From TrEMBL:
<dbReference type="InterPro" id="IPR036291">
    <property type="entry name" value="NAD(P)-bd_dom_sf"/>
</dbReference>
<dbReference type="InterPro" id="IPR002347">
    <property type="entry name" value="SDR_fam"/>
</dbReference>
<dbReference type="InterPro" id="IPR053011">
    <property type="entry name" value="SDR_family_member_7"/>
</dbReference>
<dbReference type="InterPro" id="IPR020904">
    <property type="entry name" value="Sc_DH/Rdtase_CS"/>
</dbReference>
<dbReference type="Pfam" id="PF00106">
    <property type="entry name" value="adh_short"/>
</dbReference>
<comment type="similarity">
    <text>Belongs to the short-chain dehydrogenases/reductases (SDR) family.</text>
</comment>
<protein>
    <submittedName>
        <fullName>SDR family oxidoreductase</fullName>
    </submittedName>
</protein>
Length: 261
């Protein structure tokens, strides 16, 4: 595993940042991507083996640049073995109040950007007869919650696309691991889009009391090395996966009773 090249999107903060720190300790070669180059450089400088870490700025919504960006990523270390699709944005607004443009923007970031980048690198994976997509979805990709309709929709879509990817290209050595976080203590709630597209700007109780990123990323890396199909990482909210499967009406009632904001 130590010889592998890992490309992380959304690496400037939260889960992506912590993954960079933990993976650099294991001597992987890392490519860090996000929009803000200066923040990425700061993350790189905080990595243990920063000489094996390279920064590649990326706006995930610039679909037309996906193929060019992939070629740049490949040229850095000569290959990419694992693409961690971590870039994304959440939402906190009611359906009736939300502008359609907000839904469009969420879909471009959380779904279409990931699909464009993943499709662009697929020929490289096929040529090498190996490639591993790691997709940071959410428990909201398996069941839904009020105030997150667009986010839930985009995350559900990721599962549909990448389950098909796994089936179509297993013969080519392509792996897919869907990672579904519950509540993790990051800034995801602060940056969540509200009804008019502006950021919420504040955290919530559940997120503040979620898993520390260090704990979450350790579990996530274990799932990646085991090449698991799908993994759910969080607290008691993970039980919602199983309640949804067997008792969907009960989950509906439980979610409505919870503090979903």
């Amino acid at each position: 595993m130590e010889s592998k090249v890992i490309w992380i999107t959304g690496a400037s903060s939260g889960i992506g940042e912590e993954l960079a720190y933990q993976l650099s300790k294991k001597n992987y070669k890392l490519i860090l991507s996000a929009r803000r180059k200066e923040v990425l450089e700061a993350v790189k400088n905080n990595c243990i083996n920063k000489n094996s870490v390279t920064v590649l700025p990326l706006d995930i919504t610039e679909f037309e640049r996906s193929e060019t960006t992939v070629q740049k990523a490949i040229s850095i270390f000569g290959k990419v073995d694992i693409l961690i699709n971590n870039a994304g944005v959440s939402q906190r607004s009611l359906i009736v109040e939300t502008n359609f443009e907000v839904y469009k923007h969420i879909m471009e970031i959380d779904y279409l950007g990931t699909v464009a980048l993943s499709k662009a690198i697929l020929p490289h994976f096929i040529k090498n007869n190996f490639g591993h997509y790691v997709v940071v979805s959410s428990l909201m990709g398996k069941f839904s919650s009020p105030y997150r309709s667009g986010y839930c929709g985009a995350k559900h879509a990721l599962h549909g696309f990448f389950d098909a990817m796994r089936m179509e290209h297993e013969k080519d050595g392509v792996r897919v691991t869907m990672v579904c976080p519950g509540f993790v203590n990051t800034n995801i709630a602060k940056s969540s889009l509200t009804a008019d597209g502006t950021a919420q700007g504040s955290n919530d109780h559940a997120t503040q009391n979620g898993l520390p990123t260090k704990v979450f990323c350790k579990k996530m890396i274990h799932a990646i090395t085991k090449e698991k199909f799908e993994v759910y990482i969080g607290g008691k909210e993970v039980k919602g996966i199983y309640v949804k499967r067997f008792f969907p009406k009960l989950l509906h009632k439980l979610v409505l009773k919870s503090d979903v904001r």
